[in-house]
Design goal:
alpha+beta; Deoxyribonuclease I, Chain A; 7-stranded mixed sheet; 6 helices; 13 strands; 19% helix; hydrolase; GPI-anchor_lipid_remodeler; nuclease; endonuclease; Endonuclease/exonuclease/phosphatase family protein
């Protein structure tokens, strides 16, 4: 398991971005927020910035999976405003910069607009100029290290981003993932992730897990682990009439939940999930000035 160092982009606050001005925000406020012993988490499957509000949009707006539209940038700006109050954000189903996104790396764009100094784009399925299927992780804390993992499965395209924050001796381990649709493959992927986190005391799993928390806790490699979901029966899909709970944030018992919920932000076909956690006593995440 090789740590990928130096690939996490560090962009200094105040630089412009080619699609517009950086959203104004106070750097001091960001530092103060990150220095507290509470951390705000958000996970969101953004569906490449496509606004899907009805089942028929899967057909009528399917062309947006191939071709660009000016509405996509407007949608990304809305997402940037949504994520800006958070400390750690996991993004699924982004585009890394192809024709359909107007050659915009959507993870980079969101990081600039929401003023995240550290971000990473994971390319999972490379279709060249047509599509760059990606996940992303944005954080206000400088990671100790970061690892890019391709998850097992018959078909390519599923991945996990693993990063460590805080103390070298006893870090906070954050794993962002997008799991498979089939239970068998999903369990193989969770077994792989379980091995990655073995021996770590403070763990966060977050992402689109494509199944309900009950199944993950009762019929997957997470059964019997120290992890539990912050949300149980909170449905996130489809966003306009949620009937399935597919998006989750799992936490180790050392991390106390202060607030949680599904965010009322029906832009993608998934709704975001949000959790505020309290770190163990004496454990702080600080952002260097």
């Amino acid at each position: 398991m090789n740590a990928i160092r130096g690939l996490l982009a560090h962009h200094k606050t105040g630089r412009g971005f080619h699609q517009g001005q950086v959203v104004s925000a106070s750097v001091d406020d960001a530092v103060q927020d990150a220095a507290r012993n509470t951390v705000k988490l958000l996970s969101f499957n953004i569906q490449v910035g496509i606004n899907t509000q009805q089942y028929r949009h899967y057909l009528t707006r399917s062309w947006q999976h191939i071709l660009p539209t000016s509405a996509r940038v407007t949608n990304l700006d809305q997402i940037a405003r949504l994520i800006s109050p958070y400390d750690i954000v996991a993004i699924q189903e982004a585009d890394g910069g192809s024709l359909r996104s107007g050659f915009i790396n959507q993870i980079e764009y969101l990081a600039h607009r929401a003023r995240f100094p550290f971000w990473y784009q994971q390319l999972n399925r490379n279709l060249g100029r047509i599509a760059q299927h990606s996940n992303g992780l944005l954080t206000r804390q400088e990671p100790l290290d970061l690892e890019d993992h391709k998850l097992p499965g018959l078909l390519p395209g599923r991945g996990a981003i693993v990063t460590r924050l805080g103390s070298v001796d006893n870090p906070l381990l954050v794993v962002m993932m997008h799991l498979a649709l089939s239970q068998r493959t999903r369990n193989n992927q969770l077994a792989y992730i379980r091995d990655l986190i073995e021996g770590c005391e403070h763990v966060i799993l977050m992402g689109d897990m494509n199944t309900h928390a009950e199944q993950l806790m009762g019929h997957s490699p997470l059964k019997g682990s120290d992890l539990r979901p912050a949300l149980w029966n909170d449905n996130t899909f489809p966003s306009w009439r949620p009937r399935k709970s597919l998006d989750h944030i799992f936490l180790s018992s050392s991390l106390a939940v202060r607030d949680y919920g599904v965010v009322d932000f029906a832009l993608s076909d998934h709704l975001p999930v949000s959790v505020e956690i309290e770190l163990p006593e004496g454990f702080y995440l600080t952002t260097p000035v």
